[in-house]
Amino acid sequence: MRLTKYSHACVRLERDAVLVIDPGTLSERVALDGVDAVLITHEHLDHLDVAALADALAARPAIEVYAHPDVAKLLTELDGVLHAVVPGDEFVAAGFRVRAYGGLHAMIHPELPRVPNVGFFIEGDAGSGGVYHPGDSFDVPADAEVETLFVPVSGPWLKLAEAVEFVRQVAPRRAYALHDGLHNEIGHRISDNHLANLSGCEYARLAAGTGVVL
After folding, report:
1. Could you give the CA distance from residue 178 to residue 150 in angstroms, rounded to a whole number?
2. What is the pTM of this model?
3. Which of 12, 21, 93, 185 keeps 20 to 30 A from 87, CA to CA?
């Protein structure tokens, strides 16, 4: 399996087909080139670029999209290709076995409503653990064998201690930074240093467009 991290929250997985998670407005549109299926964790624009998705579908009508029913309501123009998923669902997308976790976006402030958020666990190749993308949450996929974890590192809803504890609870082999588009270079150095020293696993922040083979 080949994994490529794009800006902010977008992740692309390739095996025999291409699966993309959270191609948002802060991510490069090239992430959707040749895509077969798209997973959307929640409705916020940094995770869902409706225009980019529509353009990708126009070029490749066979693309299938998976998202929470509340997100599906916002994408009525995608009728026929959009599949509603909720935490607990298991399905196959672009040949990848996927399990949905979570429930709600992490709290930003008690006076702001929390939108639905679905984390996605993608099973790895035979004999290896999988990849977990939590969206904007620290929901732990308790029954999943997570080898590669994406950990959110910046945003109005988190603090660094929560990110560290999330990695420790999941206990993956490796963790990569996610939701990292809101930091400047100083912020990156601070969060990278603490997560590398405190998370208890291999940790790295991948530059946009960087690919690794799992």
Report:
1. 5
2. 0.96
3. 12
How many residues would you count in the chain?
Answer: 214
pLDDT in tens, 107-162: 999 999 999 999 999 999 876 789 999 999 999 999 999 999 999 999 999 999 99
Domains of the chain: 2-202 (3.60.15.10)
Residue 9 phi/psi, 5° resolution? -120, 5
H runs (alpha helix) in 20-132: 50-59, 69-72
Closest C-alpha among 70, 66, 30, 25 to residue 46: 25
What torsion do the CA atoms of 175, 179, 182, 183 make, to the nearest 10 degrees? 0
- Distance in angstroms (rounded) separating the CA atoms of residues 97 and 104: 22
